[in-house]
């Protein structure tokens, strides 16, 4: 892509606060973008070949939405965690194995998509984020869900298509968790904490494609309590 094309994009972005350049085979984050660091609210660089997010990302002080789906990122810079206004972060289809240590400082974050990466556990940093609504960790290599999950503030947690065989009972203590997706994992019925059914806020539990028949779930203690929440929620949205 020529410089003139990039320049045109930059001029538009200066007016709109939105920079979108997807599917152009970019191998790096456009450095010229930093000229607009103080007035960009949205950056979408999905479907490129970007391998590194440079530290200068930390300068985009009013950025609300960042999308880098389907790139080649293997790590994220700590500077990303300075984005105090960031509400939406889409990083699906990269090669990320972990999140920066200071990730919990992204205090405005509401939506986080990390589907199709190489995470092996639910990142403990997520527990510090007070405004999280939706967390998508599907299609990773997660094998267990640790105790720290009990502090997660998310309303929806998607763990479909991982390798989960163990879940901490603490997941039933999540104060706002309503939707828990665990389809196509490696769960035995005995490894599913019964408190999810009997003693949690969860009103939609998706567990198809594990190592037990769904009808067996109905025999568990607490299933009737879960169904009460499920039905009440359904009525609310009907």
TrEMBL record:
InterPro entries: Leu-rich_rpt (IPR001611), Leu-rich_rpt_typical-subtyp (IPR003591), LRR_dom_sf (IPR032675), LRR_domain-containing (IPR050216)
Matches recorded under SMART domains: LRR_BAC, LRR_TYP
Regions annotated as coiled coil: none
Keyword vocabulary terms for this entry: Leucine-rich repeat, Repeat
Domain of life where this protein originates: Eukaryota
GO cellular component: cytoplasm
Regions that span the bilayer: none
UniProt key word Repeat: yes
SUPFAM superfamilies, A to Z: L domain-like
Keyword Repeat tagged: yes
PANTHER family for the chain: LEUCINE-RICH REPEAT-CONTAINING PROTEIN 57, PTHR48051
Name of the protein this chain belongs to: Leucine-rich repeat-containing protein 57
Organism: Erithacus rubecula
Species lineage: Eukaryota, Metazoa, Chordata, Craniata, Vertebrata
Gene this protein is translated from: Lrrc57
């Amino acid at each position: 892509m020529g410089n003139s094309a990039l320049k045109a994009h930059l001029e538009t972005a200066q007016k709109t606060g939105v920079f979108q350049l997807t599917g152009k085979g970019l191998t790096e984050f456009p450095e010229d973008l930093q000229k607009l660091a103080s007035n960009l609210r949205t950056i979408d660089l999905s479907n490129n070949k970007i391998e590194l997010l440079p530290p200068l990302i930390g300068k985009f002080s009013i950025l609300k939405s960042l999308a880098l789906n389907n790139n080649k990122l293997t790590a994220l810079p700590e500077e990303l965690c300075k984005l105090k206004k960031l509400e939406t972060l889409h990083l699906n289809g990269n090669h990320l194995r972990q999140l920066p240590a200071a990730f919990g400082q992204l205090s405005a974050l509401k939506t986080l998509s990390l589907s199709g990466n190489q995470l092996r556990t639910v990142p403990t940093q997520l527990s510090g984020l007070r405004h999280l609504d939706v967390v998508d960790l599907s299609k990773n290599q997660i094998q267990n869900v640790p105790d720290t999950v009990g502090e997660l503030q998310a309303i929806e947690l998607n763990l479909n298509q991982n390798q989960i065989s163990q879940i901490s009972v603490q997941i039933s203590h999540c104060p706002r968790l309503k939707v828990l997706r665990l389809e196509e994992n490696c769960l035995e019925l005995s490894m599913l904490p019964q408190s999810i059914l009997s003693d949690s806020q969860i009103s939609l539990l998706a567990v198809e494609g594990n190592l037990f028949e769904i009808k067996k779930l109905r025999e568990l203690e607490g299933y009737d309590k879960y169904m009460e929440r499920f039905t009440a929620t359904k009525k609310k949205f009907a």
